[in-house]
Amino acid sequence: MSGYAGIWIDHREAVIVLLQADKEKSIVRIRSEAEGHYRLKGGAHSKSKIGSQDSMPENRREGRYKHHLQGYYKQIIDTVRDVESMIIFGPGEAKHELAKEIGREKALSGKIAAVETVDKMTEPQVVARVKKYFKSKE
């Protein structure tokens, strides 16, 4: 498939718009299975004399989180592998993390046209932004 892709992403979900000749071909939603970061029990304000009683150490929990994110990014990359060009946008760090993962693959690294910061968007807003971006580049 040739064409273009726009990826709105955060750590919970990605909305991928695939375009062919400025016409929407498909919209793909990918949900992350990564558990969000959360505050550990215990610590400085714990009533327990020995601190946190969590069963999983923080470094192991962080490792599991990163592993889930890598799988999430791989699903996204597999979806956009055959496009000519793509833009990545979203509110947090996930867009930069995804761009870094894409950059690790030589066949894909030159396909990122832009990485932009935007707020939460509805699906129609994502589609409109992707169409507008690639229309202006033609």
Blueprint of the fold:
Layout: E1 4-9, E2 13-20, E3 23-31, H1 58-80, E4 85-90, H2 94-103, E5 112-117, H3 123-137
Parallel strand pairs: 1-4, 4-5
Antiparallel strand pairs: 1-2, 2-3
Helix pairs in contact: 1-2
Task: Describe this protein's structure.
This protein has 138 residues and is of the alpha/beta class. It has a single domain, classed as Nucleotidyltransferase, domain 5. The protein is 35% helix and 25% strand. It is built from 3 helices and 5 strands; from the N terminus they run βββαβαβα. Strands 3-2-1-4-5 form a 5-stranded mixed β-sheet, sandwiched between helices.
Number of domain units? 1
Q: Quaternary arrangement of the chains shown?
A: single chain
Average pLDDT score? 84
Give the CATH H-level superfamily: eRF1 domain 2
CATH architecture verdict: 2-Layer Sandwich
Order of helices and strands: EEEHEHEH
Helix content: 25-40%
In the CATH hierarchy, what is the class?
Alpha Beta
- Biggest sheet: strands side by side, in what order? 3-2-1-4-5
CA distance, first residue to last residue:
18 Å
Low-confidence stretches: none
Number of helices: 3
How would you describe the shape?
Answer: globular
Name a few traits of the molecule:
5 strands, globular, 138 residues, alpha/beta
Summarize this, please?
This protein is of the alpha/beta class and 138 residues long. The chain has helices at 58-80, 94-103, 123-137; strands at 4-9, 13-20, 23-31, 85-90, 112-117.
